[in-house]
Structures are given as structure tokens and as C-alpha cells.
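so im writing up the methods section and need the Transcription initiation factor IIB record in one place, dumping it here so i stop losing it
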Amino acid sequence: MASGFAAFEDGGAKGGEFKEDLNRILLCPECKEDPPHLVEEYSSGDMVCASCGLVLDRIIDTRSEWRTFSGDDNGNDDPSRVGDAPNLMIDGDQLQTTIAFDGKGARNLAHLQNKINQDKGTKVLLQAYRDIQALTDSINAGTQVANTAKHIFKMVEDNKAMKGKSQEAIVAGCIFIACRQTNVPRTFREIYSLTNVTKKEIGRVFKQLEAFLQKMGGEDKVANATGYSQQYQSTGSTRADQLTVRYCSDLRFLNPVRVESVTRRLIEGAKEVSDLAGRSPLSVAAACIYMAAHLCGEPRNTKQVAKVTNVSDGTVKTAYRYLYAARDTVLTKEAFPEDMFADILANADKVPAN
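--- predicted struct ---
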């Protein structure tokens, strides 16, 4: 073994395929240690004997080239060889060069470059995206809601729709529709509390946005690339059962899944109660959660329920009064599984009358 190692069989001349020979290993000709004590130095590209320091072979660095040195740099710079992925929500190739604030006149040069690279439309989009992200984070709506709201806003901006409306009202409307489209509904009152826009103005913007999206059909060049639905689906008002998961979680029940299940069945039975037909979904959800909490042995008072559902204490008591009066219609054996109905009957006498 003149070179000190052989990694593969020489089968190329005979037309055979190369196969690794595990019986032939790389040995240091100076130390002749077996097994050898070798070190791969990727910085220099050498295979080195750790005992005597003899360079035995050249190696190729197969590690990822997407490296960053920001953790080792006191200046918190990031001299990686790749940049961020392009943002499909922003027009342009986004491959502009950033000029550092070093040297004479560098600040003026950077200012001129920013004016050239970022037009007024891009600045409006970026500001709207920042507002949407901050507002959705404040209500814990999730990334999907934020991205959907940004997508809707870009469609409005590209088509120059909603002229004369404030950007804050358009952002609120986009978030409200995005919550419904992604099946994480928020009440109109929750969206209104995020902004300084009046309820009437947000309501107008919401109706105009729905009409615009239905007309557009949800189709544009960004939809295909981002994976959003290309067809806008009009949704009705938020239902009481859509709010139960979040409210039961906020009330911190020991078994929120069970309380939620009982609440949903109570809401389904409450549809037959005529006195609750005209009440808001918030009131119905609050009353059903209040009753379900007592039926599951984890009672909560009306003030606790009212605080979580964002309604008044009197509203919860009024809606619950109608629900309690129709308890024989709501608490039926057909509406609950057999094992669940047995536990409910055991706690039915603990449910307060008002």
C-alpha cells in the first residue's frame, strides 16, 4: 500500500461498479497506529494524524454552506453567504444592496438608494404588514391568520380598492375576515377593541371587503405561490359553538375538553329555546358555559364567565335564566352519550336557578 490507503476497488477498467472495501483503511506511514488516530481539519481541508501531525490526505468539506458567524462576532454581524428568501407579499426582486453608514457621504448615498428601491406602494405594504402582525399577535390569532390578512390587504392595494378608507380600518377588516376564513373566529367586539376606528366604520369596511373579495374570486398572482385558497368563501356571523374552545380554555377548567363538549351540546339544544333565538352568540355561549361548568362539577360564577366572554354580568344571568327555564328540553338523554348523561344527572341538582 504505497499511498498508505485504498478506499475503493479498481473496477472501472473492467466495466464493474465501484464498491467500498471496508477491509482497507487509512494508516499513518510514520506512526503505523492501528486503529489510526486521525483528525479531519475542515478549515484547512486536510486529514491529519493526531499523533505526529502528518498530513495524509486532502478532504472535501461536505457540511452545509449556509453558515452564520453572528454568534461569534461581537458586532452581531451576519456575514453568511446567503440572504433571506424573497417575500412573495412584496413586489420586486428584493435583491437590493444595502449601503453601510461608513465613510464620507455614505448616509446621503444610502438615503438616495432607499428612495429609489422602495417606492411609496412598498412602504405602505410594509407598514400595513407590521400593523397586521402586531394586532394578530396581541389577540393570539396565529401566523396563518396574519398571513391571510396580509394577502387580503395586498389584493386591496394592488387593485386600488377601498379608496378614501383609512388604512387602520382596512387592516381591521382584513384581520376580521382572515379570522373567519381560517376557522379561528374572533368577535366583532374583539376586533373593534384593537383599533381606534368606530364600529360603524369597521362594519362598512367589512361589507365592502366581502363584496370586493367575492367579485375578485380570491384570484391573483400571489395566491398560487402562497398556497392560499383562490376562492373566497362567504361566511355568516360567528356562531356560539365556535367560541367555546377559547372561552373554556381561558376559564382554566381541570377538564376543558369535557366542559367544551357539554357546552356544545347545550348550545345545540338551545336552538330550540325561543327566548334565546334573538340573542347574540356571545350571550348564548356564556350561558351554556356557565351551566356546563356546574354540570361537570367545576362551577364558575357569572362574573368569571362574563369577564372571559367580554359581556356584562347581567347579560349572562338573563340568558342563563331562559336556558335554565328550558332545562328539560336541553338536558335530554338523546343529546348526550350514556356515560356523560349519567354524570350530568348526578350534578343536575347542583345547577343554580339564577
